[in-house]
Amino acid sequence: MDFQLKTLGLARACAEKCDALVLLVGEDFKPGRDALSRLVADALAAQGLGSQAGKILSAWRPSGVAAARVLMVGAGDGSARAVRTAVRAAVGALRGTRARKLLVCLPEDVRPAGVHAAVSAVSETSYAYTATKSKPEPRELSKVIIAVSDATRPGLQTRFEAARGTALGIEFARELGNLPPNIATPTYLGQRARLLAREGGFQCQVLGPKEVERLGMGSFMAVARGSHEPLRFIVLKYQGAAASVSPVVLVGKGITFDSGGISIKPASEMDEMKFDMGGAASVLGTFRALAALKPRLNVIGLIPSCENLPDGRALKPGDVVTSMSGQTIEVLNTDAEGRLILCDALTYAERFEPCAVVDIATLTGACVVALGAVRSGLFSSDDELAQALLDAGESALDPCWRLPLDEDYAEGLKTHFADVANVAGRQGGAITAAKFLQRFARMYPWAHLDIAGTAWRGGAAKGATGRPVGLLVDYLLSQQPPATRAAKKARSTPKPASKKAAPAKKVSGTRAR
Ligand code: BES
Ligand code: MN
Ligand code: ZN
Q1: Residue 368 near ligand 1, beta carbon < 6 Å
Q2: Could you please report the per-residue DSSP string of 414-425?
């Protein structure tokens, strides 16, 4: 889909040829003297339209307007959330109308976050999964113009471009997540990662069972043992700053199907455990966005990927495995497999001397009970990192909520037979899982996002959401060093490398919106 940001007041929007024009009407809508303004003013006066976000009134070829179809939609207080609600409703209503070219007129005083919300809402609502349908219908929308009264207002253009790159990443993650588990195997994820790296101009290594064994990832290997599909350990390297700048490392849980293993899950809704690679998909989606946005920082992506199946060779309750860190783990429940593959990836992350490590995992049903499908669970050993992720979540409308990591929560992980057990009791399950991971993340500032409730929706709207790609991309963009004029110029007129750039300073907490 081709997005464009244009300066286009309502008067000029009247003359713009398109299949559908979506006009957001906020509480403080001030009509001009153009045909669209008159249409809205009439409708408001007759109470056929209100400013309640998402309320729609449509018209067919109103006079003085070049668009075939006009959708007036309430945009409430004009906040990013209200814009999202309005655009979702309008684009949803256009489904099946075969509109190809769409014009979205945002409220006059829309802020950068509102532009972001409009782009993501169009992209999100017009996505349809077709990969394994025998008669796929092509996407209807192909060209989308986002119209604002003045596109040169500070921040609008930058935020628009960030939103466009992020939308590509979110869609990439959704598509991977939705693929059936007989297609989206660990091997397939490795292939997609390689392709993404080639197209995006960054590096990628895909390790198989032999290399992983050489690394000593005994915990990860133990989970993979129950499946005939070979494991993969994917390493992505995006370099947008000098090699001396320490990277952010993203670690994504890549269980392409979680049956529970010998501690097998009940049959109902087990199909949804194909989404257990949502963390991996969000890391790949974030790299898709990095390829589009080329920010000035270094990012490493790590994805341990395998299936969790019961088999004659599978991991059993009671088994003790040795992780790459040297710590031994007693496996009391083979369904707590996510932490067993993540712990070795967290140890592997040490070699990059990262400035921060964020792992992303559909880790616990307990997190779904605690936070539902609205906010992802956030755990962190570092207040500054936690705050930066919380801020990014709010900014991208992809929110998370911080949960505690008191040492007392680790009591239940004690065992007589190894250094640590992989499960504690039923209480505080999301927290005890995070406490387990924390033992392997002592060498750097670390955060853990439990996305079990947010990575996909069940029921009638079943499908991957692409979360938390929005949060992650926003966080990464906020970690860039401030652009100096000289650096900006150097980027627009590429020159042969001269002096080495100074290492980037951390700038979290200083963002302006
Ligand atoms: N992938 C699941 C977590 C999950 C469950 C996500 C349901 C979304 C919905 C994870 O591997 C798992 O099975 N966790 C167990 C841990 C338990 C055995 C301590 C869980 O949450 O039940
Ligand atoms: Mn499990
Ligand atoms: Zn799992």
Answers
A1: yes
A2: --SSSSEES---
Q: Indicate which atom in ligand 1 lies nearest the CA of residue 367.
A: 21
Six token digits for residue 165: 């790159």
Nearest CA to ligand 1 atom 6: 452
Q: Is 489 a catalytic residue?
A: no
Residue carrying structure tokens 């979205």:
104
Block means of pLDDT (10 residues each) for the chain, length 513 residues? 97 98 96 96 91 95 97 97 98 96 97 98 97 94 97 97 98 98 99 98 98 98 98 99 98 99 98 98 99 98 99 98 99 98 99 98 98 98 98 98 98 98 97 99 99 98 98 98 71 49 44 46
Ligand 1 atom 3, closest CA: 364
Domain 170-480 is classified in which CATH homologous superfamily?
A: Zn peptidases (3.40.630.10)
Whole-prediction pTM: 0.95
Class of domain 2-154: alpha beta
Q: Residue 423 CA: which ligand is closest?
A: 1
How far apart, in whole angstroms, are the C-alpha atoms of residue 402 and residue 390? 8
Q: Is 210 a catalytic residue?
A: no
Angstrom distances, CA of residue 170 to CA of 69, 86, 258, 286, 395: 29, 20, 23, 8, 15
- Whether 126 is in the pocket of ligand 1, judged by its Cβ within 6 Å, is no
Closest CA to 162 of 6, 297, 291, 289: 289
Range(s) for CATH 3.40.220.10 in the chain?
A: 2-154
